[in-house]
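Suppose you are handed only these lines of text.
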Amino acid sequence: MATANGHGLQSLRQEVLEAGLCTYCGACSGLCPYLRPFQGRIAVLDPCPVVQGRCYSFCPRTGLDMDALTQALHGTGYDGSPLGPVRRVLMARSRDPEVLAHAQYGGVVTTLVCLALDEGLVQGAVLTRSQGGIPQGVVATRREEVLQCAGSHYLASPTLEALNRLSPRTVPVAVVGTPCQMLALAKMRLSPLAQRSNIGKVSLTIGLFCTWALSHKFLEMLSTVASPERVRKTDVPPPPARVFEVHTEAGVVALPLDAVRAYIPPACTLCADMTAEMADLSVGSAEGVPGWNTVLVRTPRGETLVERAVARGLLAVDALPQANLEHLTESAQVKKRRALQNLAQRSGRPTDFLYLRLSREVAGRLLGTP
Ligand SMILES: Cc1cc2nc3c(=O)[nH]c(=O)nc-3n(C[C@H](O)[C@H](O)[C@H](O)COP(=O)(O)OP(=O)(O)OC[C@H]3O[C@@H](n4cnc5c(N)ncnc54)[C@H](O)[C@@H]3O)c2cc1C
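From them, the structure of the protein bound to flavin-adenine dinucleotide can be written out as follows.
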């Protein structure tokens, strides 16, 4: 497992920020005066003299020992299975019309966060809210605030900065985020500098499926069809549609997906996790079943929460169609293989995956090589 020994801002700058590996998750910001999220990248304001930096230690793009991280959260080693450790797979949908009116798909995430707040399991939730088209982390403590965060903001968001800036009174919290953000939380948990983080205050993690996010330069393209303030929702409908939908009060504009994909940051092409394997539960779309979510329940804590939501009549659940599970599994597997290929190409060595540490056996299996 990578430790923080001898690695500070200088190493983060060389290995991650300048190398195009940064996912803009926010794990390094809000901790010190030297790093600030700015227009989709982490700006370094000044050199920092600290030699064992939390910024380096918490970053999901420095020394990611998948075996140690998986063992710590799930009690099992990392075997490279496409979806990661899963206790239960299901399809779910909120029964709350107000949640459904705000949510991206079935509103499972918003429903579970509201339930956790309502039952006092958490005092707040670190969520993502878009203002003027720019997403950022916020701490929601009331249902209205959770509803304001509903929906998917496809721009990468430095959400974890809000966890780093958490008020000492708001404990414990839930965190909702993308796979790279869940990986950063998993790293914080194992970091020798964990005591100087807010990870001990996190009692629930809800991960989002994610194939890619978009760089903030995409706002230029978006502004050719709508001003960011007027966008109500954006969506990537399942194949065969190859479009990125922009919903406004005036209607829906479909941008060609290939043109939008030009704004995927290089860091996303180096990510091997599509389904947020380091979360208590992970939520994505249910392709071809509008208004429903796919839910992967990963930990006993995640399972208890879903069961409570069903018992209270907040969630409807059903079996995920087998074809959906097969397609999701295949997509997640492809994402892993491509990430490893891209990482090996970057390093110039077939078994060197830069920040990603895997056993030779697992890497071989993922790449389809002996
Ligand atoms: C960048 C991105 C890419 C995605 N790619 C896929 C994909 O390839 N396949 C798939 O099935 N699903 C993908 N999703 C997940 C999907 O869009 C929904 O978020 C998920 O299905 C939950 O739906 P819901 O109706 O329960 O969400 P809601 O109840 O509407 O809740 C959505 C939650 O997402 C959080 N959120 C929104 N934007 C961000 C962001 N940029 N960073 C971190 N958190 C955010 C909000 O805090 C909110 O709580 C992606 C989401 C994002 C943000």
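What can we learn from it? The chain has two domains: 9-216+263-367, 218-261. The mean pLDDT is 96.
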